[in-house]
Amino acid sequence: MPTRKKKPKLAVFKFASCDGCQLSLLDCEDELLVLADAVRIASFAEASSRVLRGPYDISLVEGSITTPHDAERIREVRAQSRVLVTIGACATAGGVQALRNFRDVKEFARIVYARPEYIDTLATSTPIANHVKVDYELRGCPIDKRQLLAVLSALLSDRKPSIASHSVCVQCKLRGNVCVMVAHGTPCLGPVTHAGCGALCPTYHRGCYGCFGPAETTNTGGLEWALVAAGASHEDIARTYATFNAAAPPFRRAQEEQLVQIRPKEGRRG
Amino acid sequence: MARTIKVNYLARVEGEGALTIRFKGDKPSAVELRIFEPPRFFEAFLRGRAYLEVPDIVARICGICPVAYQMSACHAIEDALGIRTDGTLRALRRLLYCGEWIESHGLHVFMLHAPDFLGYEDAIAMAKDHREWVTRGLGIKKAGNAIVAALGGREIHPINVKVGGFYRVPTRTELSVLLPALETALGDAEMCLDWAAQFEFPAFERDYEYVALRHADEYPFCEGRIVSNKGLDIDLHAYEEHFAELQVPHSTALHSVVRGRSDYQCGPLARFNLNFDRLGERARDAAERVEFVPPCRNVYKSLLARMVEIIQAFDEAIRIIHGYAPPDAPAIAVTPRMATGHGCTEAPRGMLWHKYTLDETGLVEDARIVPPTSQNQKCIEQDLWQLAPTLAAMPHAAATRRAEQAVRNFDPCISCSTHFLRLAIERED
Ligand code: SF4
Ligand code: SF4
Ligand code: SF4
């Protein structure tokens, strides 16, 4: 017998982030009011003063964990959420803030603030999955709003969302782009970067800089010769991996592989 | 009797902040706009990066106004490298910026601020009674986003902005297909200004120091001198001599002041007051029709200034597209050199000042960024001090809503106000 179901509750939570991924939801101008009819927006501080109590059917989590307080808060969010979806590179890989993981954060705070004792911060920026169980991950800095809508509509109709895991190269070829690396010698991380953006950068005649993070299977060693042939130095390659997914393990490793090749030279110099 | 207005998590602003106003009797004893957005160390991350990477990295300071960060960074680096984008490339940058102003102002006016004036907790609740206005607002926002996506590749963190110009310039068709939607949205924006002008604006005035860029013959986007209604008129290279930043215990953002004076306001109302004569005919006529003319000292009317700027941005975007022919090259060639450069552009929320020092290979040695919300933070608190006696006489719930509305007047972007790498100056010189 069909029972009248209550509308599912959708919540959006923010941790350390630029707000860009949650803005993607408000950027769905054509779908926003329809979506608002299909769910109860229970908590979305950027858009609404209303806060309904949990539990929540779907929680979207943006941002990384960078303070002791946030490390606690994410546990509460998890406890209140049936399905937890992390949105964006900050939440899935620690984001650009994870660059601090390789440096001395106390030093940063000292240079930044005259009174560092006012500032409460962790030495690392870590992805949500390091702290709690995550059900689905949406990649990208920012996420692609069409992917977000596809995942939401799957979850709302009790389907398992399917998220492509191949590389940007595959999307680039599907789009019929001329390869910027082959044709113009422009370094491109497309072969090792997770699909999702529709190969945006090559379409605009520039190389991919990896904002969707590593693809499921990556051969960063194999890409190296092509990048070097395209004119990139080891320093350049290392920096390119050290951006918005710097702490994602394959990119982290790829960066170290490059740094190892620079260091001996520096040793000789010094 | 002591009473405290407390908002533990400010809603409908970008980023994380809280507000506390404490009273002793009817007199306020403390006003704190607390920013607890975790500190984000962008200026530190920029050290050692190549100049071409800077626009992509600084975009991630703020998802709402990435173009502003990219523009200020490009202009500062180009200043250091001794190049200037002119002609069509300059026009395309203005076009991109028009898109961001429309998108960001549209978001704020229709989704974040109008619900305050009409008594709703969000735009979705407001849509139940005012669906046609929310739909128009979403259409306006969408048209702005379409400009940014066409030119920048995507709405948030565009990938097509480059020091010296762009990676690829659009074809004529890629831009001209936008025109019908822009024309419609421009008409809608004029109607929306008439609608918003009828809102009930709380009677509240203060003798602000307004600060904005001013250009010889344009409404300011990327260039101009920094001027104020209290006599400031400086080159942007002299910014640090005239402005100071102070650290306060309750915030991870720094407070800005004009040296020797105090708080100031930047943003749409400041631009409107200082540059009314630089508006195009269409925007000026619309403003005059609803009798919204400078000087305006009621900060609640910043909502109207945003609407006027939306009209201005649509009008200008349409003009740029009509006159567009692709340039020969998408970017000016650049040779790195050791130098320091400054850039200041008008982000939707106000002046955004950048300074970079590069080494001879084009790597960043030092970066400094002053975003608009930290410039406005002290001004917001000063507004609340002055508003406090009125709040004390109101029922608690209404007083809380009014206080939040006053904060939202500034469309504060808390995410981008917390990333400083600089010794804070504790006392003003
Ligand atoms: S992943 Fe990128 S766009 Fe998303 S919140 Fe983080 S910095 Fe912003
Ligand atoms: S341009 Fe980049 S993403 Fe496209 S095919 Fe070539 S390497 Fe792959
Ligand atoms: S091509 Fe690469 S850098 Fe560009 S948007 Fe796609 S994933 Fe991000």
From TrEMBL, chain A:
InterPro entries: Hydrogenase_assoc-protein, NADH_UbQ_OxRdtase-like_20kDa, NiFe_Hase_small_N_sf. The keyword Oxidoreductase applies. Pfam families: Oxidored_q6 (PF01058). Keywords: Oxidoreductase. The keyword Nuclease does not apply. Gene3D superfamilies: NADH:ubiquinone oxidoreductase-like, 20kDa subunit (3.40.50.700). Signal peptide: none annotated. Residues 18-155 form the NADH:ubiquinone oxidoreductase-like 20kDa subunit domain. PANTHER family: COENZYME F420-REDUCING HYDROGENASE, GAMMA SUBUNIT, F420-NON-REDUCING HYDROGENASE VHU SUBUNIT G. This is Oxidoreductase. It comes from Polyangium mundeleinium.
From TrEMBL, chain B:
It holds the Pfam family NiFeSe_Hases. The keyword Metal-binding applies. Keywords: Metal-binding, Nickel, Oxidoreductase. Its cofactor is Ni(2+). InterPro entries: Ni-dep_hyd_lsu, Ni-dep_hyd_lsu_Ni_BS, NiFe-Hase_large. Belongs to the [NiFe]/[NiFeSe] hydrogenase large subunit family. This is Ni/Fe hydrogenase subunit alpha. It comes from Polyangium mundeleinium.
